[in-house]
Amino acid sequence: MNIFRLSGDMTHLASVLVLLLKIHTIKSCAGISLKTQELYALVFATRYLDIFTDYISFYNTIMKLIFLGSSFSIVWYMRRHKIVRRSYDKDQDTFRHYFLVLPCLIFALVINEKFTFKEVMWTFSLYLEAVAILPQLILLQRTRNIDNLTGQYVFLLGAYRALYILNWIYRYFTEPHYVHWIPWIAGLVQTLLYADFFYYYFHSWKNNKKLQLPA
């Protein structure tokens, strides 16, 4: 554990808490893509297959349980909660997210570090997480006006991945033989997808204006 990984984990956790705060207290999921949330639920379900078989640490297990539980809870809220689901903008959230799943699975079957079921699923989760934010970013571009909690949620998600890249760089220089190029490439792709959003987020913050993305 180093400061970059801990910061990344806490930033990731903060993004989930911000989204749950919006859904639970305001009873609204306006501006949130159900497609992205379903992809994240699939990411964590396939990444944490080892949760009950390989014990690493108490911290590791708790974080896995939090991300698994929160991701499926958010999907349930948006699909089933009688009040929250009314605010879901289904007409704007039309990205065919299932088109992302099959290519990521094929890549994982072809390009992986070890051809075992858990390893392939772990690699698949990395590839899928790299592009899972796409439906959310497209929804924000369509709706344009973004409330503060939604903007903070997306910003924290992007910051979490950027911090994890710093964690990998740190481990590369401090741990012998630490070379895992698949997470590095997937993380870099994911961070680059946020670049446009980061620009407009900081621009709105600097000028104290409401966050808007170009159509």
UniProtKB/TrEMBL annotation:
<dbReference type="InterPro" id="IPR000133">
    <property type="entry name" value="ER_ret_rcpt"/>
</dbReference>
<keyword id="KW-0256">Endoplasmic reticulum</keyword>
<feature type="transmembrane region" description="Helical">
    <location>
        <begin position="55"/>
        <end position="77"/>
    </location>
</feature>
<keyword id="KW-0732">Signal</keyword>
<dbReference type="GO" id="GO:0016192">
    <property type="term" value="P:vesicle-mediated transport"/>
</dbReference>
<feature type="signal peptide">
    <location>
        <begin position="1"/>
        <end position="31"/>
    </location>
</feature>
<feature type="transmembrane region" description="Helical">
    <location>
        <begin position="121"/>
        <end position="140"/>
    </location>
</feature>
<keyword id="KW-0931">ER-Golgi transport</keyword>
<keyword id="KW-0812">Transmembrane</keyword>
<protein>
    <recommendedName>
        <fullName>ER lumen protein-retaining receptor</fullName>
    </recommendedName>
</protein>
<dbReference type="GO" id="GO:0046923">
    <property type="term" value="F:ER retention sequence binding"/>
</dbReference>
<dbReference type="GO" id="GO:0015031">
    <property type="term" value="P:protein transport"/>
</dbReference>
<keyword id="KW-0653">Protein transport</keyword>
<comment type="similarity">
    <text>Belongs to the ERD2 family.</text>
</comment>
<keyword id="KW-0813">Transport</keyword>
<keyword id="KW-0472">Membrane</keyword>
<feature type="transmembrane region" description="Helical">
    <location>
        <begin position="182"/>
        <end position="202"/>
    </location>
</feature>
<feature type="transmembrane region" description="Helical">
    <location>
        <begin position="98"/>
        <end position="115"/>
    </location>
</feature>
<keyword id="KW-1133">Transmembrane helix</keyword>
<dbReference type="GO" id="GO:0005789">
    <property type="term" value="C:endoplasmic reticulum membrane"/>
</dbReference>
<dbReference type="Pfam" id="PF00810">
    <property type="entry name" value="ER_lumen_recept"/>
</dbReference>
<feature type="transmembrane region" description="Helical">
    <location>
        <begin position="152"/>
        <end position="170"/>
    </location>
</feature>
<keyword id="KW-0675">Receptor</keyword>
<dbReference type="GO" id="GO:0006621">
    <property type="term" value="P:protein retention in ER lumen"/>
</dbReference>
